[in-house]
Amino acid sequence: MKIVQYDADISIKRDLDSGTEEQGKVVTEIIGKVRQEGDAALTYFTEKFDRAVLEDLKVQEEEVKQAYTEIDEETLDALRAAIENIRDFHQRQTTQSWFTTKADGTMLGQKITPLDSAGLYVPGGKAAYPSSIMMNVIPAQVAGVERIVMVSPPQPNGQLEPVVLVTAHELGVEEIYKVGGAQAIAALAYGTETIPKVDKITGPGNIFVALAKREVFGEVDIDMIAGPSEIVVLADEQANIAYIAADLLSQAEHDELASSVLVTESQVLAEAVAKEVQKQLETLPRKEIAQASLEQYGQIIVTTNLEESIKVVNELAPEHLEILTKEPLNIVGKIRHAGAIFLGEYSSEPVGDYFAGTNHILPTNGTARFSSPLSVDDFTKKTSIISYSEKALVENGSKIATIARLEGLEAHARAIEIRLEEK
């Protein structure tokens, strides 16, 4: 990893792939075909892109039962424990409808209503991501969403990974479809003969999934267009060098666009970590991916003092921030921009990814400056409630009419004044 001295131009914001013109055209054509042909288009694209010939798009009960025979008890125990932790955390996020009254008889309020339906996209094919299922499904369930649909691209044998099916079943998800890519997003947004449309789509995916989500936004809501993963480690001279290196590599192995950054005031620590990263990299199964990531987007930023280090962190606004200092709690209050903050040497980023209970769907690429992790609030909507009394309208009607006329809206003013006649 390259070591650099801090200057005002330091940034980990990347010019991320927003899709080529050709990719955009492909996505548009896929969405159009799904809207026109429904299920037939889904089976066509599944065979074309996933090399799977499907007789039925929907996962059947027998497939779920078979999946359980391929999962050992240790895995099942780990999944169930993680589900319990994640559910406990998200249950604390719930908000209630509220009302307030005034002496003049006015009543105002806010009504909280869960979305009717949500569609969860789970990447698949060559890998399985049970954590993505938990992080999307649980906040939706806690919010009270009645219909939760899961879609995921099948393997060439036409099946989903056993751990994906088991995780979904443990969560109580019964509506699962073996379809992925832009075609799955189109199906969720517009509906087909088999897949009724949903109100919101969440979950990560490749560039075609991201472009499709962007295309259908407005017809449905989406969570975010997430970029590659990133981590910033803020450390002082007492931090464990091996821990830092391991955590930087844990993000670098995601993909070549992932970003791993160490911010420290210690030149000695910086040089030691750079050497340790190379040492640990040699035995990493995904060495080539991690190495490419570190060469392109890995940095060790050396500052003059701790306050400058904190300034750097806030400028970077990272997805994940680890604070490995002597007294991390003294620093956390000064951090304004980060998706998730991990305090102390035992709070390694994978703890939050999989098990602690916090959501790992986080803002990336500097968007933590203005956005938040996926939460229960993302699966609810808020409605304002207004009940005005006669007394309140008499007292305030002329003011309302005045403001209406300031905007040139005479009918607005008259709608108020007609109620004030003979009062």
Q: Can you describe this structure?
A:
It is a single chain. With 423 residues, this protein is α/β, with parallel strands linked by helices. The chain folds into three domains: 2-15 and 227-356, Rossmann fold, CATH 3.40.50.1980; 21-222, Rossmann fold; 388-420, no CATH class. It has 16 helices and 14 strands. The protein has helices spanning 21-37, 39-50, 61-69, 73-91, 130-143, 162-171, 181-190, 207-216, 241-252, 267-281, 287-297, 306-316, 329-332, 349-354, 390-406, 410-420; strands at residues 2-5, 98-101, 107-114, 117-121, 147-151, 175-177, 200-202, 221-222, 230-235, 259-264, 299-302, 320-324, 340-343, 380-387. The strands form three sheets. It has a six-stranded parallel beta sheet with strand order 1-11-10-9-12-13, sandwiched between helices. It has a five-stranded parallel beta sheet with strand order 6-5-4-7-8, with helices on both faces. α13 links the parallel β12 and β13. The radius of gyration is 26 Å and the shape is globular.
Indicate the topology.
Blueprint: E1 2-5, H1 21-37, H2 39-50, H3 61-69, H4 73-91, E2 98-101, E3 107-114, E4 117-121, H5 130-143, E5 147-151, H6 162-171, E6 175-177, H7 181-190, E7 200-202, H8 207-216, E8 221-222, E9 230-235, H9 241-252, E10 259-264, H10 267-281, H11 287-297, E11 299-302, H12 306-316, E12 320-324, H13 329-332, E13 340-343, H14 349-354, E14 380-387, H15 390-406, H16 410-420
Parallel strand pairs: 1-11, 4-5, 4-7, 5-6, 7-8, 9-10, 9-12, 10-11, 12-13
Antiparallel strand pairs: 2-3, 3-14
Helix pairs in contact: 1-2, 1-7, 1-8, 2-7, 3-6, 4-5, 4-6, 5-6, 7-8, 9-10, 15-16
